[in-house]
Structures are given as C-alpha cells and as structure tokens.
Design a protein that fits this description.
- There is one protein chain.
- It contains eight helices and five strands, in the order βαβααβααβααβα.
- By secondary structure, the chain is α/β, with parallel strands linked by helices.
- It has a single domain, classed as P-loop containing nucleotide triphosphate hydrolases (Rossmann fold, 3-Layer(aba) Sandwich).
- A five-stranded parallel beta sheet has the order 2-3-1-4-5, sandwiched between helices.
- Helix 2 runs antiparallel to helix 3.
Length: about 230
C-alpha cells in the first residue's frame, strides 16, 4: 500500500510528583518539535476536553476523596476516555505529536501504588480506558518531594489553597516518588527518568537528547510502545 495516510503521530507523556516542572518542560519540547516543522498538540490530565475538565474540577476540589481511591480511579478513567476519543486519538491519526501533562502512570502511582487500589482492578480499568493508545515515550521528572512541594507552593496565588493531592502529607509524596521510580524500572523501553533538580535549561537539554535518540537518530527504532 502506498503512503496515502499520514504516519501515526507520537504520544509523549510527562509524569512525576508535584512541582517537578512538567509544564515548563512541555513548553520547551513543543517549541523544539515545532522548530522541526512537526505538528504539536499540548494537553493535560485530568482534562484536555470540556467534559474531562469538568471531572478535573470535581476531582481536584477533593469532593470525591471520601468515595475512596477506586472511585477516584474510575473518574480519572472517565476523563481519560473522553480525552483519548475526542483529542488524543484524532491528533495521533493526523500525524501530530501529542505532549500530555500526566497520563495513565499518574493513576498507577497516585491511585494504584499510593491509593492501594488492587492491581487487578487497576489493570482492568486501564485496559478499558486506554486500550491501544499507549505512550511512545514517558518522561518521568524526578525531584525531591520537599523541593517539589515548595515550588508548587511558590507558584500558587496567595488566595489559592493546595489541591486534593498537593495537600497530602510528605510521606504520601515520598511514596509517590518511589512509585514513579518503580514504573520506570518496570518499563525501561517506554520510560525515561529525568533529573529535575538541575537548572531548567539542563533538564530541557536532557529531554531534547532523549527525543533525538529515541525518534530521530535511531534508524527504524521510532516507537517504544509498551504498557
Ligand atoms: P495538577 O494541578 O495538574 O498537578 P501537577 O501540576 O502536579 O501536574 O493536578 C493534577 C493532580 O491530579 C495531581 O496532583 C496528580 C493527580 N492525578 C492523579 O491522582 N491521578 C491521575 O490519573 C492524574 C492524571 C492526576
């Protein structure tokens, strides 16, 4: 068959604890990819579509905390279903590079490893919501949670309170860092840990090198999709 269809785009997800600098790095990477004349779509989770943003507001307000982590997992999945169907899958189909601030690994780390949702329910919900739309590359930004929480606090407006997850104890955030580390170790093909404690320009450079190595310098090895 000849190439009358555009090549599938790439899904790159950014993960990590609070205040690790994902949005700054997404801005750097999108500028780099655009300089290569690639179409880039920047989005986030929970959210990214109008329906998913409604779920985001409810989740981050803490209104569902008392329902427990399984119910929160179901809500994150509901938001993700709409996000994939309306935004991510169509963008990938037309060949765009989708940069997503958090995705399924946040559910694994926050609700699974930290929230204690049983692995079988996690797998079922993830398979049913994410399906084949797995990330090509997941960049896990790693930072001491004490520093991350401080950064998150500094970027909040004076009248803003910490959201549902930021407000958790330091022990929660330390366990979260460990959970992301475990994800990276379990999925070395798909995930790359990035040291986010160095200056932002250096983090951006590491990410750029990683992208070049994975997608542009490696001959036929252009996809690293694995769950
Ligand atoms: P956000 O303000 O986007 O946080 P950050 O800037 O740290 O990314 O809020 C998203 C919050 O939702 C964040 O605390 C992580 C949490 N979250 C989950 O618990 N599970 C999920 O599946 C996702 C996508 C996010």
């Amino acid at each position: 068959m000849t190439g009358s269809f555009p090549t599938r785009g790439r899904l790159i997800t950014f993960e990590g604890g609070e205040g690790v600098g994902k949005s700054t790095q997404i801005a750097f990477l999108s500028a780099y990819l655009r300089s290569l004349h690639l179409e880039v779509v920047v989005t986030r989770e929970p959210g990214g579509t109008s329906k998913a943003e409604i779920i985001r507001r409810a989740l981050l307000s803490g209104a569902f905390k008392s329902f427990g982590p399984l119910a929160e997992t179901a809500l994150f999945a509901a938001a993700r279903i709409d996000h994939i169907e309306k935004l991510i899958a169509p963008a990938l189909c037309k060949g765009a590079w989708v940069l997503c601030d958090r995705f399924m690994d946040s559910t694994r780390a926050y609700q699974g490893a930290n929230g204690g949702v049983d692995p079988e329910s996690m797998r079922w919900i993830e398979a049913a919501s994410v399906g084949e739309t797995l990330p090509d590359l997941t960049l896990i930004l790693d930072l001491d949670p004490a520093e991350g929480l401080l950064r998150a606090q500094q970027r909040r407006q004076s009248d803003e309170t910490p959201d549902r997850f930021e407000a958790e104890a330091l022990s929660f955030h330390l366990a979260l860092r460990r959970a992301f580390y475990d994800i990276a170790v379990t999925h070395p093909q798909r995930c790359r840990m990035i040291d986010a404690a160095v200056p932002v320009e250096d983090v951006a450079q590491m990410i750029k090198s990683c992208i070049n190595e994975r997608f542009f310098n490696s001959g036929t090895k252009t996809s690293n999709r694995e769950a």
